[in-house]
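Record format v2
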Amino acid sequence: MPVVPATAPGKLILFGEHAVVYGKPAIAVPVQHLTAKAIVRPRPKAPPGEVWILAPDLELDTTLDKLPADNPIAAPVLACLAALGIDQPPALKLRVNSSIPIAAGLGSGAAVSVAILRGLSAFLGHPLSDEQISEITFEVEKLHHGTPSGIDNTVITFGKPVYFIKDEPIRTFQVEKPFTLVIADSGVSVPTRVPVGDVRSAWEAEPEKLEALFEQIGDISARAKQAIESGHNHSLGPLMDENQLLLQELSVSSEKLDRLAAAAKEAGALGSKLSGGGRGGNVIALVDDAAVEQVSEALLAAGATQTFTTVVQ
Ligand code: PMV
């Protein structure tokens, strides 16, 4: 049996987080230089059925049967075996590594799941299709996020920019002209289900107010898609700023995220906003290439723990 490696990228939500949970469009892109990697290899001398899991980032070095079913590594493994109807796989070792920061809005959980599903199903001789991988990852995400919209599993599985509307067929789209983003990690790690739950409570208390905010955010996503497809990248800056104001109104920003977004603008970014669930995680800033250094430095000076640069293409 061969050794099978598989990877999946990280992701960024550019526009539309939270509103996407309520059926509005959002835009997400893969971040190819951040990756989750799964390597599956046979263990010919081990007893059949024994699945060894090694995930140094999560300090796991154990067998599958010792892990709870909702463990982020065990869950996709069990889901893969169930999807393939395999009770007892040949003895194997699954190694998982990821360069995607955890709980930072970069899709680390979904990427780990996609890489495992891809690698393990191929190793077992029945490679799952991208549609199946995305769907199973969505189910796995539910264990951790409660009510995910499905945007993470979609963009990470298909590895292309997506214009995502819940329960609608997948729509990938073309980036006419590449553009550069500086990503700043706030160093604050907040599980997505916390702001998602708070937005739900607010929506239950004041449905009309929240629906109006979602509508405006969805409209920004639609305008941003047009700008990206037609190469009008500079108009994305003001759209990011507008989206950030609406996220503040939804109470999913924070003093630190606002400070980082403002620091990026002062240093010359064309626009900036939080990305993902909010309260913590990342701020993204649209920059001309000449401004990358100064914007990154300003973000670090304003309290970011690290910055990355990515080109969306
Ligand atoms: O924190 P992240 O990057 O997983 O993004 C969450 C995005 C939300 O719209 C807030 C929730 C969702 O499921 O779409």
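The CA atoms of residues 40 and 94 lie 5 Å apart.
The pocket of PMV is lined by residues 13, 17-18, 20-21, 105, 107, 145, 148-149, 151-152, 192, 196, 276-277, 281 (CB under 6 Å).
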